[in-house]
Amino acid sequence: MSTHHDTLWDTVIVGAGSAGMAAGIYAARFGLKTLIVGQVVGGLLNDSHNVENYPGFPSIPGTDLMLQFKAHCDNLKIPFEESWVHTIERAHGDDPKKTVFTLHAEDAIGKKTTIRARTVIFTMGTKHKKLGAKNEEQLSGRGVSYCATCDAAFFKNVPVAIVGGGDSAAQAGQLLSQFASHVHIIVRKDRMRAEPINIQRLEQNPKVTLVYDTQVLEAIGETALTGARLSKPLNGSDILPVEGLFVEIGHIIQSELAAQIGVALNDHKEIIIDGESKTNIGGVYAAGDVGNRRYKQALTGASEGAIAAFSAYERIQKIDNDENVEIGY
User: Fold this and answer.
1) Confidence (pTM)
2) What residue ranges define each of the domains in the chain, with the CATH number in brackets?
3) What is residue 54's three-state secondary structure?
4) Using one digit for the tens of pLDDT, what is the confidence trace for 195-212?
5) Beta-sheet pairing, 34-37 with 8-14
6) Spatial separation of the C-alpha atoms in residues 132 and 129, rounded to whole Å
7) What is the rounded distance in angstroms from the CA atom of residue 170 to the CA atom of residue 166?
8) 153: alpha, beta or left, given left = phi > 0 and alpha = psi -120 to 50?
9) Is 153 helix (H, G, I), strand (E, B) or coil?
10) Which residues are annotated as catalytic?
């Protein structure tokens, strides 16, 4: 859809993952004029092969879960703008009650949109962290991948490696073992940090080898990946012959937009929020992986999104009833 400069939304939600869509559902039910803006509906949860810890769904592909969220939003007729918000401004004159946020967005074909809102909920989440190995960028999409769910089927009956020691690496290992001839999981430390059940599954899988205290220094290949250079020898060689290299080493917090209007961040670049999902800027809220919550899950993000929507609703109610409003947390 397309928005217009003269439309003033009660709340604009930046990010269309579990936190963003949950915020949209609650905001719409509170009667707020709501817009969700995001490049990819579903966010990084689309990369999850199977989600097994979301209540009501013992096991469901991440994409399917997000389609359920989207269907719920569609049922409430919540509009979506599939764009990237690159700039935000805040103007209030002498009266904080009249604060208006102006967001500038652009879609995949370069169409620019200006969006105005009384409140903003940031749910931008994270993006994949790069390994920083030699030739990684050159071989991205040519054997180097950041999404096992997306690309696993392309690596049938060939050896692959995964770099990482957390749950995302463990889940990628389980998935890739269904396709690849063998999976090496390269762990920088002396142990994995994944859930015990996920580590146990890997250790019992004959197609998976765990390699500790090792790093990948280089992606090898001209036009396609043929191997990975390791920081120390494995089976007598520092070159591991693989045709796929999956990087699962974490994510980068996408909080740059919030920082443009002075939203406080912690040392990890996470947006600092209180128990009501409020930031230090009045009318600005955050939820999901972009916030400074220790446990980052679809469930907790959805919960924070609902709380953020209620906080935005309360603020607008106070403004409309000419009551005092908070500057921030």
Assistant:
1) 0.82
2) 8-127+251-320 (3.50.50.60), 130-247 (3.50.50.60)
3) strand
4) 999 999 999 999 999 999
5) parallel
6) 9
7) 6
8) alpha
9) helix
10) 147, 150-151
